[in-house]
Write a structure and sequence with these properties.
The complex is a heterodimer of chains A (116) and B (112).
Chain A: E1 5-7, E2 10-13, E3 19-24, E4 31-37, E5 44-50, E6 53-56, E7 65-68, E8 75-79, E9 88-95, E10 106-107, E11 111-115
Parallel strand pairs in A: 2-11
Antiparallel strand pairs in A: 1-3, 3-8, 4-5, 4-9, 5-6, 7-8, 9-10, 9-11
Chain B: E1 3-7, E2 10-14, E3 19-26, E4 30-38, E5 43-49, E6 56-58, E7 61-66, E8 71-76, E9 85-93, E10 100-102, E11 106-111
Parallel strand pairs in B: 2-11
Antiparallel strand pairs in B: 1-3, 3-8, 4-5, 4-9, 6-7, 7-8, 9-10, 9-11
Classes of the chains: A mainly beta (116), B mainly beta (112).
């Protein structure tokens, strides 16, 4: 079974530039998550989709971050303009169901962003 | 405010040692406690615990949840260098959005 695919793996940009990350979840997984993980910290949920609808985006800095999942499959996370503090690994995860009972999230390998 | 606290933050042991990692939580509408292992790449799922006092075991790893005292432990026996990783604990909230509250992780280094 193919895992969660993310690209690019690494990106270096200057502050105030823009960047976009792409995620393709495991086939059939209805729920997709974008997490931000800063070095030394646990993952922070940015946005959660159920199919193509947003379930939770309460921690997404909406003045500079945006995300979409137009057809309920692939998703794109964009940052514009980037700040130094956005340097982090952006993890995409998917799960079969949005119910807590099953529990397991499958993570992609992440996209490491460095803002100079 | 929901929070998950892991201890210790970092740990260095020798191969063959047994380690215990701790996770305490304060999560409203608590439903489950999850453990993940994160090496250089993405976190990988270890355990999900929903019932108090029932140990879950996978090889040399085991975990148990205490819902009265609001904590969980992850035990690793006969540690190997391949166990070196960050171990993340997350509290799962009940409800339709399956929100996870993550701890900062415990960084484990196993020396040969």
């Amino acid at each position: 079974e193919a895992g969660v695919a993310q690209s690019p793996r690494y990106k270096i940009i200057e502050k105030r530039q823009s960047v976009a990350f792409w995620c393709n979840p495991i086939s059939g997984h209805a729920t997709l998550y974008w997490y931000q993980q800063i070095l030394g910290q646990g993952p922070k949920l940015l946005i959660q989709f159920q199919n193509n609808g947003v379930v939770d985006d309460s921690q997404l800095p909406k003045d500079r971050f945006s995300a979409e999942r137009l057809k309920g499959v692939d998703s794109t996370l964009k940052i514009q303009p980037a700040k130094l503090e956005d340097s982090a690994v952006y993890l995409c995860a998917s799960s079969l169901s949005y119910t807590v009972a099953t529990g397991e999230l499958f993570f992609g390998e992440g996209s490491r962003l460095t803002v100079l | 405010e929901d929070k998950v606290v892991q201890s210790p933050l970092s740990l260095v042991v020798h191969e063959g040692d047994t380690v215990t990692l701790n996770c305490s939580y304060e999560v409203t509408n608590f439903r489950s406690l999850l453990w993940y292992k994160q090496e250089k790449k993405a976190p990988t799922f270890l355990f999900m615990l929903t019932s108090s006092g029932i140990e879950k075991k996978s090889g040399r790893l085991s975990s148990i949840l205490d819902k009265k005292e609001l904590f969980s432990i992850l035990n690793i026996t006969a540690t190997q260098t391949g166990d070196s990783a960050i171990y993340l604990c997350a509290g799962g909230k009940a409800g339709n959005n399956r929100k996870l509250i993550w701890g900062l992780g415990t960084s484990l280094a196993v020396n040969p």
